[in-house]
Amino acid sequence: MSTPTPHRAPDAGAVRAPAPDLQAEALRIAARVRRQVARAADPGRIDSELSLLNRFAEHEDVDVVVGPVLAELVAAALLSARLTSGLVDPTTGVSAWRALDGLDPDPAPGIGRVELDPSTRRLRMGRGTVLDLAPVAGAWAADRTVRLFAHEHPGHALVAEVGGACAVGGPPAAAAALVAAGPAARTAPGAGPCAEVVPTVRAALVGRGLRGLAVLEHPGDAVVDPVSGAPVASPWDRVVVAAAGAVEAQAYARAAHVLGRDAPGWLAACGAEAELTGSRPGSNLRRRLRTPGWPGRPGAGAA
Question: What is the pTM of this model?
Fold first, then answer.
């Protein structure tokens, strides 16, 4: 069986800093993080650390010390699984690969077959466990860029977007103002999906401490139900989720597609805010549901 590569690596992304000199520094940091993620977990690179690990794990148990970036990506993926009670699962690598090839579904083995010691970076995986870290990689890269920028330039705000995930850092007022000013400047052509969220809405969410945003549209085969191993038939065309960080927001957005119509109440119970848009079966009418605290909804908390 060939190593599955169901997702592309995170794109070049976007950053927005409050001044030209800081913008240049943010671009440098974002590029460094992107290179680190590519070396550690790019599914399109046969020499990435994760690709080598997955090929070995297809046939043997794994017990190895991994690099620091891959260790953090695995930790973020395991956190996503715990936050969503297994609705999001990094062990769906084989399931996603089979879905793309039109093969019968194969349930994910589950994170019980993955053990990571963060202090030593020792990773253990049961034979046949193939990790798919692409969904979490972009969100982790956005969070990581913001953290590194804050360390090197304390007191300044930054917006970092990678793929469909966005992270915001800096003092609350400055961060909210930077988000309200408009979308981040792309480091590559094209506009990211996070840029389509109204800036005033994003600023209100940031003002409430929700520094991560994720947008997941038309998931298709990209979201797999870990229990059945089959692609999710989501009723949502677009899910926008705000949470404490980008990794959390991305996890909740993917889980929302798995949950379907039960997602709005579940997201609110998790402490996230969301806007979900979908079409009714057999109808051209679109519906939009929002959690109680989503900005602009009657009764929502003030920013």
Answer: 0.90
Q: How many beta carbons lie within 10 A of that of residue 276, not counting itself? A: 26
The size of the chain, in residues, is 303
pLDDT at 303 over 60: no
Rounded Cα–Cα distance for residues 197 and 212 (Å): 13
Which pairs with CB-CB distance under 8 Å and at least 24 residues apart come from 103-111? Answer: 105/228, 105/229, 105/230, 106/229, 107/226, 107/227, 107/228, 107/229, 108/224, 108/226, 108/227, 108/229, 110/86, 110/226, 111/78, 111/81, 111/82, 111/86
**What residue type is assigned to position 297 of the chain?**
R
pLDDT band at 103 (very low <50, low <70, confident <90, very high): confident
Give the confidence band of 296 by pLDDT, cuts at 50, 70, 90. confident
As a whole number of angstroms, the distance between CA 105 and CA 101 comes to: 10
Tell me the chain's radius of gyration from C-alpha atoms. Answer: 19
Residue 9's pLDDT band, with cuts at 50, 70 and 90, is very low
What digits encode the pLDDT tens for the residues 197-244? 999 999 999 999 999 999 999 776 578 899 998 888 899 999 999 999
Cβ neighbors of 142 (< 8 A, separation 6 or more) are 13, 160, 161, 162, 165, 166, 167, 212, 246
Residue 282 carries which side chain, given as an amino acid letter?
G
What is the spatial distance between Cα 228 and Cα 158, in angstroms, rounded to a whole number? 40
> Residues 6 or more apart from 41 whose CB is under 8 A from it?
9, 48, 49, 50, 69, 70, 73, 133, 134, 137
